[in-house]
Amino acid sequence: MIFSNGRYKSVVHRVTVNSMKSRLSVASLHSLNANCNVTPSPILIDDLNPRLYRDTSYADFLEFLSSSDFKCKRFLESRQLHLNMC
């Protein structure tokens, strides 16, 4: 969502439980290098489509998880730029 500057929305993953069959889940974590920045694509930013998100990294995400903000909002919300709409 950050890379597309909000054009493509991220979704919350949800699972449907089936009481008739057993289910196996495997968790795997994939990430970029801790200091590799994710930034909105410059070709998607112009006067009509201002930048909506600040640059971020996996290190920023890990820091967010250990903060008190983690209990109040989603990480993506913490990366939003609050633009002055006059």
Describe the structure.
The chain is mainly α. It has one domain (1-10, 28-86). The protein has two helices and no strands. The longest helix is centred in the last third of the chain and has 8 residues, at 58-65. The protein is extended. The model has no long low-confidence stretch (mean pLDDT 84).
Helix and strand layout, with pairings?
Blueprint: H1 58-65, H2 75-79
Short synopsis of the structure:
The chain has 86 residues and is mainly α. Helices cover 15% and strands 0% of the residues. It has helices at 58-65, 75-79.
- What best-fitting shape do the alpha-carbon axes yield? extended
Q: Approximately how much helix is present in the residues?
A: 10-25%
H/I helix tally: 2
Q: Classify the secondary structure makeup into a structural class.
A: mainly alpha
Distance between the termini: 25 Å
Low-confidence stretches: none
Largest sheet: none
Count of structural domains: 1
Mean of residue pLDDT? 84
* Quantity of strands, as a count: 0
